[in-house]
């Protein structure tokens, strides 16, 4: 069994993102490319994005702190701390409306 203090890691990644030229920081906390399930903690500074992409499987994003907007085609969904968003299986991007830390979970098919 493995236990992680996500809140402490979220603070660390948020500080790293604030100092990074890209305004982003991420760390896979469970799984990886060789597993079906992958969970990645992502920190984005306000105004930064995860570029448009198609998920390699079913995916959700749980917002630990901050606010995001998920944009797919002409539709968007807003989320804030405590919200869980099931990501569309179409091309989409994630924009940070405010400084954000979120847990991205992907189950590859």
UniProtKB/TrEMBL annotation:
Gene3D superfamilies on file: Jelly Rolls (2.60.120.10)
Where does the record place the Cupin type-2 domain?
41-103
Q: What CDD domains does UniProt report for this protein, alphabetically?
A: cupin_HP0902-like
Show the InterPro entries listed in the entry: Cupin_2, RmlC-like_jellyroll, RmlC_Cupin_sf
A Pfam family (short name) is Cupin_2
What is this protein's record name? Cupin domain-containing protein
| Organism name | Rhodococcus aetherivorans
